[in-house]
Amino acid sequence: MTDTATPSTTAWWRHAAIYQIYVRSFADGDGDGTGDLAGVRDRLPYLRRLGVDALWFTPWYTSPMADGGYDVADYRDIDPRFGTLADAESLIAEAHTHGLRVLIDLVPNHCSDQHPWFRRALSDGPGSPARDRFWFVPGRGPDGELPPNDWQSYFGGPAWTRITEADGTPGPWYLHMFAPEQPDLNWEHPDVRAEFESILRFWLDRGVDGFRIDVAHGLMKKPGLPDAGPHPDPTDLPYQDCDDVHEIYRDWRKILDSYDGDRTFVGEVWLPTPDQFARYLRPDELHSAFNFEFLCCAWEAGALRDVIAGTLAAHRPVGAPPTWVLSNHDTIRHVTRYGRADTSFDMGDKRLSDPSDPVLGRRRARAAALMSMALPGGVYVYQGDELGLPEVRNIPDALIQDPTFRRSRGADRGRDGCRVPLPWTAGGPSLGFSPDGAPGDPWLPQPAAWVALSVEAQTGDPDSFLTLYREALALRRERLAGLPETLSPVPGAGPDTVCFDRPGGFRCLANLGADPVAVPAGARVLLSSGPLPGDTGGRWLPADTCVWLDLGEAGPGAGTPAA
């Protein structure tokens, strides 16, 4: 049986390998300990050599950094920590000369409490039209002392904060589904819609190739802001996935399509059902969205087969390409997740303190990388994935900057562990993150063991993570990027395998079980995540290993477990 998604097209974003850059932690060009655009420009040759097609930048806008830049004070300028608007324009142009597209983060659900709109809403006082651009609502209770409803912030605690008016009297409450420093915008207001359409054009005019839309499912709220209730239905929450949000994206799509150059939208869409997810990918809305079900899935063959099949089935009716991602700036790095007894991931319970076997995690992460890159559609690489970086779980409390740590009173240690600055060299106080002689330390401390994981240490090592990623991305571009978006499962490969064929005789075989699996006789090995032992009787795929094969004249069977 052939599991068919949509036919391949020439659109680059349908099959792109996109590299996520968390700017603060990628490379520091000016020596202040914080990554910046100058650092990225210096490393563009590295990214071209890695073999990715596009770069996705997390927010680089002016921001107080209450939430790592996702609290935007000015959507049309660059934060001074990162550089200037001129630096961004030069970076976009230079990336294009290297054959790299540029996507930037757009944060439309909320802004910063330092944004001019919100500051004016506070200063203008009660009844000001400026407050209508946000959700300022009287409290409940005799004196308005209770929040307007029972909504909880994603970062912990109530989603409402009460203001004090200029004369010292208690005022209304404002909505913030994240930190209090991130007031939610009211997308029912025409000013908000017009402003973001203008922001889109501002950056499109400067050459960006697309946008990653933060909290794409959360812009609209149910009329009246009703309570979620003690036992909310996850498929019908009052603060997300409201039908009117699709009108916004249809309007945005018209703007994007009016520009030359095959621009694209990718949505951050966390929703519980495939049907809800797929509605954002209809032909006149977003081009693609992150596949969080795949990221969260346990390292179990049956579960992964189901997620892959379900992903393709969900995308097929709307003609959108699937995407595959293993880690990002909000999740525990998969090298650490895959070394745990429970290899799944849940944003609500990250289990950061669970023991993790680093050798097992690295072996599985290598196999997962090959498997994800072989699947039809687009693939995302979070910075450091290509180095096999683990989660840093021992950052001192005093250095943690993620607001979830404070909001949860330490119960959730936050996301800083996946945001530690990259190691570029095998020596120096910052492992090459900052220039030689830089006066400051990196904004988060790097583990000493990362010397062995640095780009310098891994370059030229045929068994390194970096070499595996470079070879896999090159083969993916050569063998898979131009193929139709089809996948044929190979059910006879064994219950503990994920095995599928792509057109042209390409097979991906991943062994997630404890026993070795036979490699099909006559198949040519293109690339494997680890050694393939064997003798004159054949080769074997060890546990937690993945191989790419050119079947040639080999038969359809993938072999049976070794005795």
Short recap of the structure:
With 563 residues, the chain is an alpha/beta fold. It is 25% helix and 16% strand. The two termini are 29 Å apart.
How would you describe this structure to a colleague?
The protein is of the alpha/beta class and 563 residues long. It has helices at 23-26, 37-42, 44-50, 85-97, 116-124, 190-204, 245-257, 274-279, 292-296, 301-315, 334-337, 358-374, 403-407, 455-458, 465-480; strands at 3-4, 17-21, 54-57, 61-62, 74-78, 101-106, 136-137, 160-164, 170-175, 210-213, 264-267, 288-289, 323-325, 378-382, 486-489, 497-502, 506-511, 517-518, 524-528, 534-535, 538-541, 545-550. The chain has an 8-stranded parallel beta sheet. Strands 1-15-16-17-22-19 form a 6-stranded antiparallel beta sheet. It has a 3-stranded antiparallel beta sheet with strand order 7-9-8, with no helix packed on it. Helix 7 links the parallel strand 10 and strand 11 (264-267). The two termini are 29 Å apart.
- The general outline is globular
Biggest sheet strand line-up: 12-11-10-6-3-2-14-13
Number of strands: 22
Q: Give the N-to-C terminal Cα separation.
A: 29 Å
Number of helices: 15
Main sheet properties: 8 strands, parallel
Secondary-structure map:
Layout: E1 3-4, E2 17-21, H1 23-26, H2 37-42, H3 44-50, E3 54-57, E4 61-62, E5 74-78, H4 85-97, E6 101-106, H5 116-124, E7 136-137, E8 160-164, E9 170-175, H6 190-204, E10 210-213, H7 245-257, E11 264-267, H8 274-279, E12 288-289, H9 292-296, H10 301-315, E13 323-325, H11 334-337, H12 358-374, E14 378-382, H13 403-407, H14 455-458, H15 465-480, E15 486-489, E16 497-502, E17 506-511, E18 517-518, E19 524-528, E20 534-535, E21 538-541, E22 545-550
Parallel strand pairs: 2-3, 2-14, 3-6, 6-10, 10-11, 11-12, 13-14
Antiparallel strand pairs: 1-15, 4-5, 7-9, 8-9, 15-16, 16-17, 17-22, 18-21, 19-22, 20-21
Helix pairs in contact: 6-7, 12-15
